[in-house]
Amino acid sequence: MSTVQADVASGGSDQLKKWMRSTGKKVFDFCAGLLILGVLWWLGVWFITLDPTAPFFFDQFGPGAALLEGLPKLWAYGTLQESISASGARLGMGLLLSIAVGVPIGIMVGLSRLTAETTHVPFQLMRMTSPLSWEPIAVIALATWNQAVVFLIFIGAVWPIIFATAAGVAKIDPSWRKVARNLGANPWQMLTSVIWPAIAYDVMTGLRLAVGIAWIVVIPAEFFGTSSGIGYTLQNARENLFYDELMAMIVIIGCVGYVMDAVLVRLQKRASWVRED
Amino acid sequence: MPVRGVDIKIKGLTHKYTPKSPLTFEEVNLEAKPGEALAIIGRSGCGKSTLLHIMAGLLPSTGGKVHLGDTEVRAPSPRWVMMFQAPHLFPWMEVTQNVGVGLRFAGWPKKKIDERVDEALRLVELEKFADHNVQDLSGGQQQRVALARSLVMEPEILMLDEPFSALDAFTRASLQHDVRAIAKRIGINLILVTHDIDEAVIMADRALIMAGSPGKFMDELEIDLPDPRNREDPEVQKMRARLMTAFHDATSSARGQRPAVGDEKDAGTVQQRGSEASAAVAG
Questions:
Q1: Is A186 in Cβ contact with B90 (below 8 Å)?
Q2: Is this model's pTM higher than 0.80 or not?
Q3: Chain A: closest CA distance from residue B67 (Å)
Q4: CATH code of the region A63-271
Q5: For the domain B67-190, what is the CATH superfamily, name and number?
């Protein structure tokens, strides 16, 4: 083997080792984190079981009951799949609405100081209002409970999208717009070729926050009035004393939230144009 | 030699940023021939950059008119492209995308854009970096990408607003030579705004000295030197000294707000100072 070939081979093997080390650490962190959470769960339930009036607690709320009994049952009945798809559809519609309304408003706020100044107070007042406090009004004003839930998701998720978009637009280097005008960009080209790529990362940051809020809102919003979704299944399990299923649904809420966030982190990284090095 | 450049005519140009702010410059008049390279030199704050922005259609004037070729400038156009102090490349794009972005705005088909971009990259000697992200390039290479981005539009006029001031001395010298050579090869007008006397001597056919507040053209000097121009050449150094003297005289006169170049009673003085002063700076 020549020296060059040996160098290439040794370089490749170093890279493989580095990749294995980094992946191994990630897997270890993931497993260790889950293990710690499982132990804390187990300890929490065990602590409650010390109360002589709640001896049944462990059998129904413990990790074993939820993961080995509740979860397989929910899967076998199809409840899990139906719940996730119903909540997912509401979440998706609410988020789409938030993006469709939030991004243009955010761009306007970012581009115009007058708009930013006049909208600051009303937007902050609205943002600080709990989305769930709109439920009675949403139920009266909208035709179906389904629409009301979508509205509650929208009213919670739209603010971070507006604020993150506006912050992104305000950060745009004015010279980029000057250069684009100089090269003959029309307003649409300015929006799609300059403004959007420049703010995509900030919009994704807002979307990530919005998904967090929306996921927190959708579950209690489905407690009443709806006959599908994760919130409904959770409430149903509580009313029917299916505590193993209830705990399984809580695990599912966490898992789905984690997966959505992980996907958004990837999309956020893809939207970033800043070189890490 | 091909001439793609156009006649430049500026008549009575005046500017103030707001109705209450003082005049940036007043009654600026200028004429230039197709393919001519002009340098506008002056101290910071004399209004030379503002003048260039108005010529490019990036700022409105308060009074007067700018005609580039047969068109009165009212808005930016790919026919007259400006290069700024910093390259201002789009960092989310690769080199080729940055260079071709103006053609994409103009609705060119992708294949034609690719051909034109390849040609422009060859012109600025960056063909090896075509697929790099612009953030991976050095300051000088980024400024070359900005140059290619301007040239790819095949403009009639290339406007340069202190384009090399942020670069190191070696890169600056090399780009000054290259930009002049490319402009002469394709026959476009160059309008260079700078406060670097050397840069004006190396790059321009004529230097206009702007001074005072509000700014005015106080003097001008024809730079009739052969190409390529070498800083160490005695002729270049002699021209540099003449321009420096003219610059000092003009700026000292500006403190007393002497009438501007082109005003009849001052025409003789201008002729004496810059013996080859062109009649193109019209009053």
A1: no
A2: no
A3: 17
A4: 1.10.3720.10
A5: P-loop containing nucleotide triphosphate hydrolases (3.40.50.300)
